[in-house]
Write a structure and sequence with these properties.
about 170 residues, alpha/beta, Rossmann fold, two-stranded parallel ribbon, globular
């Protein structure tokens, strides 16, 4: 990671499967009031799990995807559209896990400008591009989603400091 990237993410916000499920259900409550919806378009890959939970909660059976590649590890690179959808999004719910810088959101907004865009988490730079979100996090926070992590042993602080010679 470059020095500038190291400064970009000063915090980490780990999300458990349980928390993600609770947050997606809470977002579903907000979205239920704004429907009815013809279907859901999930932005892959991060939007797949939230879209599945929201589809279940709102009893939406029609689910499609817009496939975007933009991140390599923690670095956002060139955005590549791998698959689009037909139409302008009218009556559709567009779902992603997170809006970060807004680069992906801008591209997807152009593709389906009439869709209602919802994310579970939103950072300040991308927040104006979504219609509904659940939780705002700071721009310098890396959200660690459960599909990107695993549980492992961590040494106690005192032991780590002793090993580092502090």
């Amino acid at each position: 990671m470059t020095r500038s990237k190291a400064r970009t993410y000063r915090r980490t916000y780990p999300i458990s499967w349980e928390q993600l499920h609770r947050d997606a259900r809470a977002l579903s409550w907000r979205l239920n009031e704004k429907g009815p919806w013809q279907g859901i378009v999930a932005i892959t890959r991060g939007g797949l799990v939230p879209a599945a939970i929201i589809a279940r909660e709102l009893e939406i059976r029609l689910v499609d995807t817009i496939c975007i590649a933009s991140y390599v590890g923690r670095n956002q690179g060139q955005i590549e559209v791998l698959k689009s959808v037909a139409g302008d999004g009218d009556g559709w719910l567009l779902v992603d896990d997170l809006v970060d810088t807004g680069k992906t959101a801008r591209i997807v907004r152009e593709m389906v400008p009439k869709a209602h865009f919802a994310t579970i988490y939103a950072k300040p730079a991308g927040r104006p591009l979504v219609d509904t979100f659940m939780t705002e996090v700071s721009q310098d926070t890396w959200i660690l989603f459960p599909w990107d992590s695993e549980i492992q042993f961590v040494q106690p602080i005192a032991e780590r400091l002793h090993q580092e010679g502090a």
